[in-house]
Amino acid sequence: MSAINYSDKIPNNVNLSEDRTLQRALEHWQPNYLEWWKDMGPEGAQSFDVYLRTAVSVDPQGWAQFDHVKMPEYRWGIFMNPAEQGRKIHFGDHIGEDAWQDVPGEHRANLRRIIVTQGDTEPASVEQQRHLGLTAPSQYDLRNLFQINVEEGRHLWAMVYLLHKYFGRDGREEADALLQRNSGSQDNPRILEAFNEETPDWLSFFMFTYFTDRDGKFQLCALAESAFDPLARTTKFMLTEEAHHMFVGESGVGRVITRTCQVMNELKTDDPAKLRAAGVIDLPTIQRYLNFHFSVTIDLFGADQSSNAATFYSSGLKGRYEEGKRNDDHVLKGQTYKILEVQGGQLVEREVPMLNALNEVLRDDYIKDSVGGVERWNKLIEKAGLPHRLTVPHKAFHRNIGSLAGVKVSPEGRVVSESEWQAKVGEWLPTAEDRAFVASLMGRVVEPGKFANWIAPPVMGINRQPVNFEYVRFS
Ligand SMILES: [Fe+2]
Ligand SMILES: [Fe+2]
Q1: In Å, how far from its chain's centre is CA 132?
Q2: Which class for 37: exposed (0-12), middle (13-18), buried (19 or more C-beta within 10 A)?
């Protein structure tokens, strides 16, 4: 089951050739996908030979094979983790029943919506990142960008397969629409707001892959629990790829910090103006980027109270993060959870039915996970002998969804007036000047082993190759 058939037009481990109708439908979608990739994928890079990993099987040893390939020739395919014999539904109202191998009629609309929403984020991030290759700080980074891009493309394939196989005609229409919406488009934007934001520079890219790809991890983890077994198996395999995306973000921000700290020590200063003059990104600017990406990303989990979240859970469509490791009844009726809201100018906690607060539960799990990397960034500053520290802003800071939408809260969690917000926002979120300064540093570095001045080299290369390996051949 885990071997991948590369003789097929569409590599897969789902026995695609046994279902001719489905195979033909997907082979019909394939050229449209490639058209989209050429129009909306990495700009000016289609003829480069890029050192990429491709899945050759889904078992731990074999899912990553490295070689130089041109991106349009990347073997995008459909891969699922092996089926678990006798898998049972382990949460919600159907707990203990057999997992579904097909879509139950009554859950069809909700499942389709979940799959479409997840699927929409995958090509969206490719679109958001399509200009970044023009200003990569090194070959190593350029290769990582393209690796993420082709894998997000594969994640789209993963969702499109489910739509085609299990949702008939409306599934095929949704699959087409996934190639028609575009990030930031006025008439036909991507579904979720954070995926219509620009990723204008490499600091944004590293923040995005650290914070926003981690949102992807949590959504996929919740779907990996699903009673709909094909969705669970698909998302489990996607998670193996997602880990590298977050690594690129964490190590990328870490290398920016390392370089900044080096120059802080050389010049014995923390004056942002002096550091900027020396061509590195000052820590307060990094903090503002962090504040922005963290706050925009936690909005992606949705409203803190949501009847949809309750329905998705109770009907078995979407579990909690690490559902199987939790010691409760996995039904959650009658249980409560604390959400935040503003009363009388203060942030207060309020207990609400847990089933309705499952977006908040997932958001809180995400926050715990994302704090870890920020602590590791602080270790780098500490190691450089500097007293500065980065912090994760308060959950209520700069929120745009749920009960905290529009409430003005400082990064420390103090409710502030509109006028204080206006006076301080330039210290809390990236300003136009910050963005212009970061943009001014972006320039293309193409020589193997060379890095832009604002970022330190990585500790090691990809797939045990040296850091100065020729990761991209420009031809
Ligand atoms: Fe993805
Ligand atoms: Fe990702």
Answers
A1: 16
A2: buried
DSSP string, 419-462: HHHHHHHHHHS--HHHHHHHHHH-----STT---TTSPPPSS-G
| Helix (H), strand (E) counts: the chain | 13, 5
- Give the Å distance between the CA of 152 and the centre of ligand 2: 6
Ligand closest to 156 (CA) is 1
Q: Which ligand has an atom closest to residue 235 CA?
A: 1
The pTM of the full predicted model, rounded to 2 decimals, is 0.96
Tell me the pLDDT tens digit for each residue of 240-286.
Answer: 899 999 999 999 999 999 999 999 999 999 999 999 999 999 999 99
Task: Determine the distance separating the centroid of ligand 1 and the alpha carbon of 24, expressed in angstroms.
Answer: 25
3 state DSSP class of 351: strand
Closest by CA position to 397, among listed 355, 359, 425 = 425
Contact 92, 227 (CB under 8 A): yes
Tokens of 101: 């191998």
3-state secondary structure of 165: helix
- How far is the centre of ligand 2, averaged over its atoms, from the C-alpha of 215 (Å)? 9
**Secondary structure E strands in 92-243:** none
Q: Which residues of 385-404 are buried (b: 16+ CB within 10 A; e: fewer)?
A: ebebebebbbbbbbbebbbb
